[in-house]
Amino acid sequence: MAQPKILLTRIDDRFIYGQDVELWNEAVGSNLVLIVNDEIAADSRQWAPMRAAAPEGIWTRFFSVQRTIDIIHTATPRQWILIMVASPADALALVKGGVPITKISIGHMQAGEGKRSVTPAVAVDGADVAAFKELQKLGIELEICYLPSSNPDPIQLVIGDVPYVSAF
């Protein structure tokens, strides 16, 4: 069975957000945006606004983590996939479930109670850091990149509870 053509896996808790997804879609050339999140997949009322924000002519699907694990290998060669997840935990579950992800781009993780800002757009808590550490141990490359035209900041190592992001 052929591997699915996953062009980019991105953590962005806004999922499809204005020009952001349009720019990423254009940069990687996907024709399918796969939103992977258990809550979104279970609430079809949230789908319409996201579909409206998606680039014209791009398929948009909303799957739970487990459904993605179960069917990603049935993707056809003509499906060029941009996977969007809300959290490092969802990304880790996909990787552990056999979804062939080698690199994850981190775009936006909202600040909140118990979270510490790593960059202006990325805030993490202990569970996020633990998931990032495990992803690194599994050989997944992690980078923070806001827009395709931005220089990515690789997460090179972890100090204490907070990922250290090198700035070039």
TrEMBL record:
Main location, first listed in the record: cytoplasm
Gene Ontology CC: cytoplasm
Keyword Transport in annotation: yes
Gene Ontology biological process terms from the UniProt entry: phosphoenolpyruvate-dependent sugar phosphotransferase system
4Fe-4S among keywords: no
Domain of life, source organism: Bacteria
Entry-linked InterPro entries: PTS_IIB_sorbose-sp, PTS_IIB_sorbose-sp_sf
Record-level Gene Ontology MF annotations: kinase activity; protein-N(PI)-phosphohistidine-sugar phosphotransferase activity
Keyword annotations of the record: Cytoplasm, Kinase, Phosphotransferase system, Sugar transport, Transferase, Transport
Subcellular location(s) of the protein: Cytoplasm
Pfam family, one: PTSIIB_sorb
Limits of the PTS EIIB type-4 domain: 2-166
Protein name stated in the entry: PTS N-acetylgalactosamine transporter subunit IIB
